[in-house]
Amino acid sequence: MVKITDVARHAGVSPSTVSYALSGKRPISEETRQRVEASIRKLGYRPHAGARALAGRRSNVVALVVPLRGGVHVPVVMQFAVSVVTAARRHDHDVLLLTQEEGEDGLRRVADTALVDALIVMDVQLHDPRLPLLRALDRPSVLIGFPSFAEGLTCIDLDFKAAGELCVEHLARLGHRVVALVGSPPEVYVRETGFAQRVVRGFTAAADRSGLASSVHPCEATPAAARRVAEQLLREYPALTGVVVHNEPVLEPLIDAFEQLGLRVPGDLSVTAICPDELAENVRVPVTSIAIPSAEVGAQAVELLMKKLAGTPVPEATLLAPRLTERASTAPRTLTP
Hints:
single chain, about 325 residues, alpha/beta, six-stranded parallel β-sheet, six-stranded mixed β-sheet, 14 helices, about 45% helix, elongated
């Protein structure tokens, strides 16, 4: 790693002169400044974020706030994080990843320092206690997710309500009349996480419009819980022929459980899911699904943030339309004689 002393040696000046050229705190001759800047470019020197902050300049660091709460599926969260980091690097920004569940206090602690210029916040709840602080901060922010009241905020996400609707509409077109949603773990609904609540709303609304019998079943993210839900569904809804899954870890265990209980997928039961494409494609029976567009959402969140940092107006709400990909797990309902 190139140090400030390397730049000073290459430019034939003292390290303090390099520091002054970077910070502008003391006047130096134009010829010296140009020599220092030429050495910086040639050596590829990058000032440390903390040094830039202490010099009164932007840190070029974005905080990504991802509290790893119960029920959060870490592999999907990390897809978003990688997307944010990759997009931020294109804008010469680093990313500070904050995973501790600290709510408003954690945000305030970071915002009160010069460590970050702006924030991207994930796992947004309908009535998120962090929102008043985010509205009041002197640093711009973007939310990946939507609270119930988003005025004065900048939010982006997949349209999860439309995703729930699209899954049901697909099953309805195939003739299925009794459907169930196997949803996120119970704690996700208890804290009113926005995306999970919106899937339920879309699922229920579409089922009602189409005249389908429907039910919603939160599920712990374990194979044993998937087996219990499958048994419950077959016991309570013997006419069930369509299932929507919004819980990545139980997708394959749930299909296995149904087949162990005597239902073939898709011969007896059609399954759709809201999950990453790579998961849907690699299940033993490839699953008809709506993709989680983590790369697109993360990149667009960074673009919105960069525009806000530059003082450019941005839309308050950006909803990405869901796209359903048909695979082997869905088929027309088989009519019994």
